[in-house]
Amino acid sequence: MSASGSAASGVPHVDVDPFDMKFFADPYPAHELLRETGPVVYLDKWKLYGVARYAEVHAVLNDPATFCSSRGVGLSDFKKETPWRPPSLILEADPPEHTRTRAVLSKVLSPTVMKGLRDRFAAAAEHLVDVLLDKRSFDAITDLAEAYPLSIFPDALGLKPEGREHLIPYASVVFNAFGPPNELRQEAIARSTPHQAYVTDQCQRDNLTPGGIGACIHAHVEEGAITATEAPLLVRSLLSAGLDTTVNGIGAAVYCLARFPEQWKLLRGDLTLARNAFEEAVRFESPVQTFFRTTTREVELSGATIGEGEKVLMFLAAANRDPRRWDKPDSYDITRRTSGHVGYGSGIHMCVGQLVARLEGETMLSALARRVAGIEITGEPRRRFNNTLRGLDSLPVTIIPA
């Protein structure tokens, strides 16, 4: 891992592979190297530009006309190769198409809709805490971080009860596919057929419960806001946006609160900090580590010239710990002002499932804090490797009842 002499355009070259298993196991030294080498770097391994400082990541996210999403938010360039699945109408689209479809999702996931779901989500969180208190020792990933969103979000969306075991593997395929043609991506796509078939089927109007979020999306076809072909693809967007990011966010929050007992004590003393404890975990652990954009023209960014049609990799996780933006970035502090973190992205493509994630994170953490005195890690946490996401596969814990 090293930085070497600059390219002709004044961009330093860096010998870092952000899709290597060693990088996934401990990305922080590489993040620091990327930030300190320069505002824009060139990664020789995959022939692309990278930005790891907060200012540049934020600038790229907020200039969709120059740094577009429609050519893919992964390494593959849709102008040059065929996407592995029909592109997302939200994530992999630019205005004006993106503006139109995004408006539909903003309506069906509005703050008012979230308010209507709050009691149901809170009751489900309380019920899960009952179950966990009976067990005392459990895996905080499978029994909590995955179990909670799976117990409520598919119902809110209006999915049938059978087949839901495909949801988490499906989301993990989607996020692995944003990476390069490495083993993780190839294996994920090779395994994806049953998960894709399930998801495609579930997103059709006839398979969704009346009154659910999915049915509400389809209802916008009558109004002419979207077409009958677009509706299932918009439901599909929520299946990856509403689950994996939430699972990894809740997993990250529990992992942080177990490792920093003084923060757990703070939360127990003031339950209004639950939402911020979740936000700070998203900043600190960054469940979504990276995303790509493609330049639509030659552009100058912080003194570096980037040509048209170049892939730019944004290191969201590195930006979320950039000392230029955050005070004591490597400490988890639930009283920190977290607004502005790029854990959900920023600008017009900001994560569409963020309100769901925040509601689930907050209700789950406050239910735990009310009734659990302490969380103790009782076994070796195991990472789940993914080209885009950072999370745990296993986190054995024991809880002490309050």
Major beta sheet summary? 7 strands, mixed
Describe the global form: globular
- Mean pLDDT, as a whole number? 95
Q: Ranges with pLDDT <50 over ≥5 residues? A: none
Q: Let me know the number of strands.
A: 14
Secondary structure tally, helices:
16
Supply Rg: 21 Å
Topology as H/E string? Answer: EEHHEEHEHHEHHHHHHHHHEEEEHHEEEE
What share of residues is helical? Answer: 40-55%
Strand order of the largest sheet: 1-2-3-4-10-7-5
CATH architecture: Orthogonal Bundle
Strand content: 5-15%
Q: Enter the CATH topology name.
A: Cytochrome p450
- Quaternary assembly: single chain
The helix/strand class is alpha+beta
Q: State the distance separating the first and last CA atoms.
A: 47 Å
Class, according to the CATH hierarchy?
Mainly Alpha
Question: In the residues, how many domains can be counted?
Answer: 1
The CATH superfamily label reads: Cytochrome P450
Structural overview:
It is a single chain. This protein is of the alpha+beta class. It has one domain (2-401): Cytochrome p450, CATH 1.10.630.10. 46% of the residues lie in helices and 15% in strands. The protein contains 16 helices and 14 strands. The chain has helices spanning 21-25, 28-37, 54-61, 97-108, 111-135, 141-157, 167-176, 183-191, 193-202, 213-219, 230-241, 244-259, 261-269, 274-285, 316-319, 354-371; strands spanning 2-6, 12-15, 41-43, 48-51, 67-68, 137-139, 290-295, 299-301, 304-306, 311-315, 372-377, 382-385, 390-394, 396-401. The strands form 4 sheets. The protein has a 7-stranded mixed β-sheet, sandwiched between helices. Helix 5 runs antiparallel to helix 6 (141-157), helix 10 packs antiparallel against helix 11 (230-241) and helix 12 (244-259) crosses helix 14 (274-285). The N and C termini lie far apart (47 Å).
